[in-house]
Task: inverse folding
């Protein structure tokens, strides 16, 4: 028999009294915040008011009573975390009987108040506010540390968290609309049900955490979730009290065992990492060359003959190449050396600039007092950094060398064309590398993947010209096993993706010719023609206006494309479309970047995409996006609109060695046809932004590395 309202209130008052007692022995908390079975900060099933470390990315997999929840959680800011959850529910009741249901849901957890003195930490949260609503709930919770190893939490929940021992909603004193909660309507998900938030019956929940040892934590909680959908078809509840034990196998990996609702045993595995803390230490790259003062006898004079000058350029190019930098062009005029470089190694462009300045201090004639270093992207000069040679000589060993050298460096957007050195063009490069292509959330098989080899080649006939292609061959995988047939009411611009997986082995991933140019000081351009991506070929043109020292940028892109054959070789299908967008970019600050794209998508629908990413100084990127178009939710189909997460992991973070490549993936709950955008390579914003002053400043700590 479930505890009545009076018993819940008695327990709540007693717990709240304990939580507010003075803790004279209170020291810094030694209790780590855990992830609950839903993957957000919590006890076992219930939430807590504390948060995980800023920037942490965690994966949790929990299972009990035929329910398996897999959750990806990101601590977006020190106070805000977001979770994406994929759940398999066996014995799920429907009108036709018990089935296995696959559900996707999102959660947000925000810490409103920090713990201090007698004041507890307070947090508020929303669960399943964008999915089908199976787990739809809201909560307010307070947590108080009683001793360094003991913490108590007490909260109030609505929705799912108000189904056991519920009572009249206290918020009804403000409006009668809080008294009832709209019934969960069967549907395809993807709509925000804000009309249900904090409405209907409320209930109390709470629990206690005891950090028994540095590795072992014991937890007990009183749950306010009656599992109204799953019980009794999936399991029987005999109690609302749950018990759990969590053991840290190693830092970042926890294994938990639970006894839940008086009838079921559960298990959970949590694996967490923080982009701020790489597994491999930095600095594995070879040490930079020391600065050579002009008083040294090694300082050179400018060669007189053309042959000697050619040998001098070759010596500079060879020395820079040893540092992982490609020399694009060099010119000496008066007391100034202008050097154009291509950074082929370092994630931080400032490190390439610093190493170039060191090389110039060793090789330039003594009368050269100013270095002008110009980073080049796709044959376009992006920034022009003017560095005094005397600053290199005096600041190399200064304790405040980083900020002093940046303050003395003048950064501007260069005017005019590049000056490539003889022999830079033409150039041919090729690479053979492995690839991994995952496919998630297919109800027939939620996890699929292909692994194979990819051969890519690039030919640069001249400045700003690039001809490139790629071919893939699958070695192992099961993407071609998918038997799903698209039921989309829109043109099948993306939903036939499995037909490409079945037929395209081997496949031409792209085969394009591109022209990059700079029509104005702060304007960049691109025209690309060919097989632009695995599903489309045609022509794509882009212009980007990006002032050097501004957080804002504007771009426009226009494309005319035709759908490729499923075998991804040289043929086309009959579908063609004109598509394009106007884009606004904003560097919000603190590592956050926002992008708004408005225009026409591949299915002919009109709308806009908003994307927000958090970028770490070491190159990690984690973000989310959502697209709304004029396609009605009912026509779009399951999910209602396009949305997803994207993650980019730099290889250098894993190895500690200089490397500009990264593994990137996009996680979509569903891949539908509405809001689908062309996936053309070489877009300008991501090429130009790392070479501008704000990004150079963010990475200037590596200038002397």
Result:
């Amino acid at each position: 028999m479930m505890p009545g309202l009076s018993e819940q209130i008695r327990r709540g008052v007693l717990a709240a009294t304990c939580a507010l007692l003075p803790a004279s022995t209170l020291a810094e908390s030694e209790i780590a915040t855990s992830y609950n079975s839903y993957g957000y900060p919590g006890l076992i099933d219930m939430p807590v008011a504390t948060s995980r470390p800023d920037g942490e990315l965690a994966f949790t997999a929990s299972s009990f009573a035929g329910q398996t929840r897999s959750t990806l959680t990101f601590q977006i800011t020190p106070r805000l975390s977001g979770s994406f959850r994929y759940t398999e529910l066996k014995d799920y009741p429907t009108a036709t009987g018990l089935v296995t249901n696959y559900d996707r849901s999102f959660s947000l957890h925000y810490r409103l108040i920090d713990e201090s003195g007698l004041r507890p930490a307070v947090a508020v949260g929303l669960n399943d506010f964008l999915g089908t609503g199976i787990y739809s709930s809201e909560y307010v919770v307070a947590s108080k540390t009683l001793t360094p190893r003991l913490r108590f939490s007490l909260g109030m929940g609505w929705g799912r968290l108000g189904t056991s021992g519920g009572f009249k909603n206290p918020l009804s004193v403000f409006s009668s609309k809080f008294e009832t909660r709209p019934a969960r309507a069967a549907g395809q998900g993807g709509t925000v049900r804000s009309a249900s938030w904090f409405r209907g019956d409320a209930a109390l929940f709470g629990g206690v955490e005891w950090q028994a040892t540095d590795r072992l934590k014991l937890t007990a909680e009183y749950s306010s979730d009656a599992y109204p959908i799953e019980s009794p078809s999936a399991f029987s509840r005999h109690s609302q009290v749950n018990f759990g034990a969590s053991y840290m196998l190693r830092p970042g990996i926890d294994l938990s065992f639970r006894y839940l609702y008086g009838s079921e045993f559960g298990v959970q595995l949590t694996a967490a990492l923080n982009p701020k803390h790489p597994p491999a230490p930095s600095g594995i790259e070879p040490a930079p060359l020391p600065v050579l003062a002009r008083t040294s006898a090694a300082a050179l004079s400018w060669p007189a003959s053309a042959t000697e000058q050619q040998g001098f350029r070759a010596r500079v190019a060879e020395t820079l190449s040893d540092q992982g930098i490609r020399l694009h062009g060099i010119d000496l005029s008066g007391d100034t050396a202008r050097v154009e470089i291509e950074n082929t190694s370092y994630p931080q462009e400032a490190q390439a600039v610093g190493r170039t300045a060191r090389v110039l201090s060793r090789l330039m004639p003594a009368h050269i007092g100013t270095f002008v270093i110009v980073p080049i992207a796709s044959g376009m000069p992006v920034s022009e950094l003017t560095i005094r040679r005397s600053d290199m000589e005096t600041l190399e060993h200064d304790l405040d060398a980083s900020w002093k050298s940046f303050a003395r460096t003048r950064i501007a957007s260069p005017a005019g064309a590049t000056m490539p050195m003889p022999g830079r063009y033409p150039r041919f490069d090729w690479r053979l590398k492995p690839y991994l292509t995952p496919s998630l959330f297919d109800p027939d098989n939620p996890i699929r993947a292909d692994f194979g080899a990819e051969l890519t080649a690039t030919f640069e006939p001249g400045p700003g010209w690039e001809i490139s292609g790629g071919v893939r061959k699958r070695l192992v995988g099961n993407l071609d096993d998918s038997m799903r047939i698209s039921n989309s009411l829109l043109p099948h611009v993306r939903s036939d993706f499995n037909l490409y997986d079945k037929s395209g082995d081997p496949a031409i991933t792209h085969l394009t010719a591109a022209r990059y140019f700079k029509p104005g000081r702060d304007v960049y351009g691109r025209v690309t023609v060919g097989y632009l991506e695995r599903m489309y070929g045609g022509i794509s043109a882009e212009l980007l206006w990006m002032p050097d020292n501004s957080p804002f940028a504007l771009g426009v892109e226009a494309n005319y494309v035709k759908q490729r054959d499923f075998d991804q070789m040289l043929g086309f299908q009959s579908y063609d479309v004109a598509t394009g967008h106007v884009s606004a970019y904003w560097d919000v600050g603190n590592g956050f970047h926002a992008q708004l794209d408005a225009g026409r998508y591949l299915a002919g629908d009109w709308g806009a995409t908003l994307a927000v990413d958090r970028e770490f100084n070491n190159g990690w990127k984690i973000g989310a996006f959502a697209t709304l178009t004029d396609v009605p939710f009912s026509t779009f189909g399951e999910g209602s609109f396009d949305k997803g997460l994207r993650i980019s992991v730099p290889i250098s973070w894993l190895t500690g060695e200089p490397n500009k490549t990264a593994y990137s993936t996009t996680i979509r709950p569903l891949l539908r046809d509405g809001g689908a955008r062309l996936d053309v390579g070489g877009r300008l914003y991501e090429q130009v932004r790392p070479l501008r002053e704000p990004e150079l400043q963010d990475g200037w700590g590596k200038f002397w590395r």
Observations:
- The longest strand covers residues 572-589.
